Amino acid sequence: MKITKVALVAAADSSLQLAINQLPHNNPNLITFFNKYVDTTNVWSWNSVIADLARAGDYVESLLAFSAMRKLSLTPNRSTFPCAIKSCSALFDLYAGKQTHSQAFVFGFHSDVFVSSALINMYSKCGYLDDAQSLFDETPVRNMVSWTSMITGYVQNGRPYDALSLLKDFLTEERLSGSSNYNNENEVCIDSVAMVSILAACSSISNKNVTEGVHGVVVKKGFVENTRVGNTLVDAYAKCGQLGFSRKVFNEIINKDVTTWNSMIAVCAQHGMSTEALDLFYAMVRDAEVKYNAVTLSAVLLACAHSGALQSGKCTHDQVIKMGLEEDVVVGTSVVDMYCKCGRVGTARTVFNRIKNKNVRSWTAMVAGYGMHGYAREALDVFYEMIRVNMVPNYITFVSVLSACSHAGLVDEGWHWFQTMTHKYNIEPGVEHYSCMVDLFGRAGLLNRAYDLIKRMNVRPDFVVWGSLLAACRMHKNVDLGEIAARKLFALDPQNCGYYVLLSNIYADAGRWGDVEKMRVYMKSHGLSKTPGFSLVELKGRVHVFLVGDNEHPDHEKIYLYLEELCMKVQEAGYVPNMTSVLHDIDCEEKEMTLKIHSEKLAVAYAVMNSVPGSTIQVIKNLRICGDCHETIKLIAKIVNREIVVRDSKRFHHFCDGLCSCGDYW
Ligand code: ZN
Ligand code: ZN
Question: What is the pTM of this model?
């Protein structure tokens, strides 16, 4: 028996030595150092050396100390192992971890709850969850550390359902053992670390019921006011689309830290609730307890970009400069993106030039920015520069490049990069790239080429791809292909009325009034209605929202009067309203009314009334701008002698002196 143990120890020692010899940066002088300064006969002094080195992040050295101690044939105790194992986890070194496990085994400590928890942690960090699970199952007495290690292991390895089922096991075990068990030294109470892991699992599952269930546990276990738990809960609710609950949890967190604020601001910004995001930011700035950071500023810039809130964006940019973060690649890129989306592509370029160590995201933001403004040449120049400095473009860069080509009608260049992307950069074209190409071919009137490309797609074409083809069929009056595209769209997105309207317009252009009537009846009987359009305009730091035919705005009477005045002047200039943008079945006068009250016209009129003469006006529209509004705004820009910028769902239009930067191609 005794001999067996000696043999086992010797084998474990030589394996440990081998494992440690394979680690990089071994400092041979360390052993001399240990011998000189450590009481080498005392296990406890070795333990503290191992622990100190691990805590300082010198993991290899910590393991070296462990092996030096074994070379002196000192017997480790239960406190030796957790730190040595932690060093293996931190190095993600399964081999060294296994050898340390063997040591724990031969000295009889592997069942110790702290040693086994560290081992569970090590195995799951290295991706060996089955080993972690069997250790967990074999541990005779589990404490919260072992439960937390196992739950966290599942979450970190992308197995959120297993993590939740483990929580269930824990709660059952806790209930079965009764409370008496939990007042002694082995007290097992769920802790906040485990709760944070569980909520991270909820975030990745993004199911409302699951999150609510775990929220119940949070309340029951008294973690409602815990800041870290609350922060994760805010995120978990947002991930399953329950923004109201996110906000409620946020409000309940008593000691909000910078992460709390950042999570809530980011949630609002990502869901297009930019006013809420900005209000939160201002509230945070007033809160003297918390200092905002780079993450906050990036989230706020995203919110400004979404709503085109240039003034707020500029103020945020000032904060960025004050904090010396303009050259920072993450924040700097957010500033670039904000200026592009708020219509100031020139300013974006200046900021872009100042960013040090630009990454692929910074370059892509600039390419996309030029593209959405219709400056395809500049977009491609930035792209060529990016390649020249050996920055490797990614999937999204190519979406931006192809989209720039499509906005400017550069068919050959677009086709060239579509092919190069696969051949040279090994990027398989995704649905976004295909939809850019279909759009590019379609606008250029190459409808059959567009349709052939769709048929050859190696991914399933989605509604954007078919929608681009349908719009192109409308533009080039192709009924047959239009019907094919529309049929696909009705199946993919049956509630969207826009496709029925487009097909109906294609029929009307072809004089097929019977089919127009059929579409009208179908839409009516299925209760389909158009997505309501709305426009945003920012004046003096406030974002105003206008809906189609808006009567909600406090100044709506004045706005309508002024708009009518403008439209009279537009008609005097010889413009006849473009009827083709609305359903053909409405009678003529009503058609003109419907056209007049498109939200972008209201927003433009309101902005002209309320801004300094000569200043640039900027409007954001949620849908694509219609032909009539486009023509009218061109003339309004000329009449009031202003530059008017409209960002629609597709791109920017810079209206100036009766012309638009898109060259009427959008
Ligand atoms: Zn319109
Ligand atoms: Zn335009």
Answer: 0.71
